[in-house]
Amino acid sequence: MRLLGSTSRLSWSNCYARRCWRLAPNVRIDLGGIAKGWMADRLAERLGDHVLVNLGGDLYARGEWPVAIACKTYLLRNLGAATSSTRKRRWGDLHHLIDPRTGLPATTRVEEVSVVAETALDAEVLAKTVLISGRAT
Fold this sequence. Notes:
Blueprint: H1 35-47, E1 51-55, E2 58-69, E3 72-85, E4 90-91, E5 94-95, E6 98-99, E7 104-105, E8 112-117, H2 120-133
């Protein structure tokens, strides 16, 4: 993959990868929902045996690290963690977490979910799934 200057126009012709997918006109993909967890896992694999990769709340702890989650500190060892919340990115009654069943901001009484899992990607997907479904247990 090559990085483009700020004046360059991004397009599929500027992307190089092993596989390529074409999208219908006016279709967009937002990987923000899973990309940070995936990237935290990849970076931790490459950076060494004792590293904490934190990408805006989605993290992977390789080795043992103290991590604060919801006003409590946990020791994570070779685990991922993620928090999803509707508290910060709000516009009136709307927020950024979209329910794929409706295409609208999720209607849920759950405001924030934190998950610790084997990978940061798993933690991120589970946190968003629980928050969007409203089924916190």
